[in-house]
Write a structure and sequence with these properties.
The chain has 345 residues and is an alpha+beta fold. It has two domains: 6-153, 2-Layer Sandwich (D-amino Acid Aminotransferase, Chain A, domain 1), CATH 3.30.470.10; 164-329, D-amino Acid Aminotransferase, Chain A, domain 2, CATH 3.20.10. The chain has six helices and 18 strands. Strands 1, 2, 3, 4, 5, 6, 7, 8 and 18 form a nine-stranded antiparallel sheet that branches. Strands 9, 10, 11, 12, 13, 14, 15, 16 and 17 form a nine-stranded mixed sheet that branches. It binds pyridoxal-5'-phosphate (PLP) and 2-OXO-4-methylpentanoic acid. 2-OXO-4-methylpentanoic acid binds next to loops.
Length: 345
C-alpha cells in the first residue's frame, strides 16, 4: 500500500507505479508499454510541443462500498477523445483500446487507489494524446502517442462541497466563436491561463466565461461547466463553445430521475440574479458550489456586480445531486443507468 494520507489529497501530481504508452506509427499502434519513468523520450520537434497538437481526458476510478473498483462512463471519455483527435487531425485509440488501457492503468497502480472510506478521494486517470513525430510545418501530426497517466486526488479546490467565489471575465475568452471551445484540447487551457492567473491574484477560484460572440450569455468555467438551480429546475447553458461535460450530461439525467425539471438552453447573464444555487460541475470539481459570483466590465477593474448564492455551504438541491452522483460512483446507490464499468482485478 502506498504511504499516502488519503484525507489530505488535493488535485495534484503524485508519482505512481506506471504510466501506459503506445504510439500510432506506420498505420498501427505499437504494443502498450508500462513505463515506471514518467519522463518521456520525445523529439523536441514533436508537433505537440510547437503547435499544441494535444488533447486529453479526465476520468476517475473509485473503490466502491462492496470493494469493487469502478470507472464512471469511460466510453464517453473515449468518444470525446476521438472527437478532439479528429478536430486536431490525428489518430485516436478505439473505444475498446481506450477503456482497456484505463483498466490496466488502474490495475498497475491499484495501491494508489484511495480506499472506500476516503471521502472525495479517487484515482484520477489522465488519458493524453499528442502529435509526436518530428515536424516543422504547421500540419496535423502523422504519428500520435497515446498515454494513460494517473494520480490519486482529493477535491479540486478547498474541501469537497466548500463553496467558492468566482469571477466573470468579460474582456477575456477561453475560446473563439466557431473555435475549439467544445473540444478537450490543451490549447483551450493555455488560452484560459492569463485570465485565470489574474482571477487567482484577486482571490477567485475560477473564471466564468461568456459566449465569445455576443458576450451576453453564460458559457462555462475554465475547467468545468455551469449550472444554476431555480425552484425545482436544473438549468445549464446550451452553447457551441463549451466542453460537452460528461458530469453535466449525467447530472441532467440524475436531476430528471430525482423529479427535477431540466433545461439546457441559452442562459442570459441577467438570469444570474434569479438562481437560488449556482455551481461548477465536472470530473475534477464534481459539484463545487459557488458562493459569490462577481461580474466585472474588466477583470482588472474595481467596478463590479456581485451575485451571492447561499451562505457558503452547498445548497440543498446541489447537495442532493452531489450525493446521488457520488453515491453511484462509490456503489452506495444502485446504478439505474448502466454508467458503472467494473475494473476486474
Ligand atoms: N469544461 C471544461 C473546460 C473542462 O475542462 C471540464 C473538465 O473536464 C469540464 C467542463 C467538465 O467535463 P467532464 O464532466 O466531462 O469532466
Ligand atoms: C477534469 O475535470 O477532468 C478536467 O479535465 C479538469 C482539468 C482541466 C483540471
Amino acid at each position: 500500500m502506498a504511504n499516502i494520507d488519503w484525507s489530505k489529497l488535493t488535485f495534484s501530481y503524485t508519482k505512481t507505479n506506471t504510466i501506459l504508452k503506445t504510439t500510432f506509427v506506420d498505420g498501427a499502434w505499437t504494443p502498450v508499454e508500462s513505463l515506471t519513468d514518467d519522463y518521456l523520450h520525445l523529439s523536441a520537434y514533436a508537433g505537440a510541443l510547437h503547435y499544441a497538437i494535444e488533447c486529453f481526458e479526465g476520468l476517475k476510478a473509485f473503490r466502491a462500498k462492496d470493494g469493487s473498483v469502478r470507472l464512471f462512463r469511460p466510453e464517453e471519455n473515449a468518444k470525446r477523445l476521438q472527437r478532439s483527435a479528429q478536430y486536431l487531425g490525428i489518430e485516436a485509440p478505439s473505444t475498446e483500446m481506450f477503456i482497456e488501457m484505463c483498466k490496466r492503468c488502474v490495475r498497475e497502480n491499484i495501491e494508489f487507489l484511495p480506499p472506500y472510506e476516503a471521502t472525495g478521494a479517487s484515482l484520477y486517470l489522465r488519458p493524453t494524446l499528442i502529435g509526436s513525430n518530428p515536424q516543422l510545418g504547421v500540419q496535423s501530426s502523422k504519428e500520435s502517442t497515446f498515454m494513460i497517466l494517473c494520480s490519486p486526488v482529493g477535491a479540486y479546490v478547498g474541501g469537497a462541497l466548500d463553496a467558492v467565489d468566482v469571477v466573470i471575465a468579460r474582456n477575456y475568452d477561453r475560446a473563439a466563436p466557431n473555435g475549439s471551445g467544445s473540444y478537450k484540447v490543451g490549447g483551450n487551457y493555455a488560452c484560459s491561463l492569463r485570465s485565470l492567473n489574474i482571477a487567482h491574484e484577486q482571490g477567485y477560484k475560477a473564471v466564468l466565461y461568456l459566449d465569445p460572440s455576443t458576450k451576453t450569455k453564460i458559457d462555462e468555467f475554465n475547467s468545468s461547466n455551469f449550472f444554476g438551480i431555480k425552484g425545482n429546475k436544473y438549468v445549464t447553458p446550451k452553447s457551441e463553445s463549451i466542453l460537452p461535460s460528461i458530469t453535466n450530461a449525467s447530472l441532467e439525467i440524475v436531476a430528471a430521475h430525482l423529479g427535477m425539471e431540466v433545461e439546457r438552453r441559452e442562459v442570459p447573464v441577467e438570469e444570474l440574479s434569479t438562481f437560488e444555487e449556482v455551481g461548477e460541475c465536472g470530473t475534477a470539481v464534481v459539484i463545487t458550489p459557488v458562493h459569490k459570483l462577481v461580474d466585472k466590465p474588466f477583470l482588472e477593474s474595481d467596478e463590479e456586480t456581485v451575485y451571492t448564492y447561499g451562505d457558503g455551504k452547498c445548497g440543498p438541491k446541489s447537495l442532493k445531486l452531489y450525493n446521488f452522483i457520488t453515491g453511484l460512483q462509490k456503489g452506495e446507490i444502485e446504478d439505474p443507468f448502466g454508467w458503472i464499468d467494473i475494473v476486474e482485478l
